[in-house]
Amino acid sequence: MQNNAKVAQDQFWVPADTFSTEMKVKGSKFISQIVPVATKKSAEQEYSKIKNFFYDATHNCFAYIIDEHTYRFSDDGEPSGTAGRPIYEKIKSAGVLEVLCVITRYFGGTKLGTGGLVRAYSKGAEQVLQKMAVKVKVLTVKRTLIFNYDHENTVRRLLHTLQGHLLESDYSDRIRMEVAIPCSKASYFAQTITDLTHADVTIYDEHRRD
Which of 111, 132, 153 finishes a domain? Predict the structure, then answer.
């Protein structure tokens, strides 16, 4: 992973782009790919695309981690525990989220055995993860605010102070704003904006990442 810097609270690493590597082990070719994926649905879709592209491969093994609660791995026909799990463990140890790693194998005529397979898939994952460049994303929550016009400057100032940002706004009889706030500051934002407007604001919640 091409960045060893620590991230601050509410921040996490994700792949900056797609990356791939290739290697051969006793005649078998292993093609490792990293794809950034923000949701389980996109991870499954991207895996399907890769599997369809390498339709003639012997195996297309994978693992993805979206967050600590959303992950999956598959041996895709290799002996149980020899491919998907090793890929998953390498991703986990790299400390990156919203990532899909697919390792495609073209059998080269020599069986590797269970230990050899674990080593090969681990090495394939490690190589592509080492090549991968990363970027920082911020874990935020989305808040929808509805308030009177005379509170607009107050809302904007607090949003700027807390390093949040405006997603969209609508001006009708009252102002409606969708904003993103760093998770660690969400409670403070809600309490402070309520105090500053004398409770003349309605707040709706929704989690998101930016």
Answer: 132
Domain assignment of residue 6, yes or no: no
- Do 119 and 162 lie in one domain? The reply is no
pLDDT in tens, the chain (210 residues): 766 666 667 789 999 999 999 999 999 999 999 999 999 999 999 999 999 999 999 999 999 999 889 999 999 999 999 999 999 999 999 999 999 999 999 999 999 999 999 999 999 999 999 999 999 988 888 899 999 999 999 999 999 999 898 999 999 999 999 999 998 899 999 999 999 999 999 999 865 554
End position of a domain, from candidates 73, 106, 132: 132
Neighbours of 47 (CB within 10 A): 23
Within 10 Å of residue 109's Cβ, how many Cβ atoms?
A: 7
Same domain, 94 and 155: no
Q: 3-state DSSP call for residue 43? A: helix
Residues 97, 186, single domain; the answer is no
Residues in the chain: 210
Distances in Å between the Cα of 91 and the Cα atoms of 13, 100, 149 are 12, 9, 48
pTM for the full predicted model = 0.77
Q: Which residues pair with 208 in a beta bridge?
A: 140
CA distances from 198 to 79, 121, 154 (A): 63, 59, 12
- Could you list the residue range(s) of the whole structural domain that residue 200 is in? 139-209
Residue 17 and residue 23 in contact, taking contact as beta carbons nearer than 8 Å: no
Dist CA 96 CA 107 (whole Å)? 30
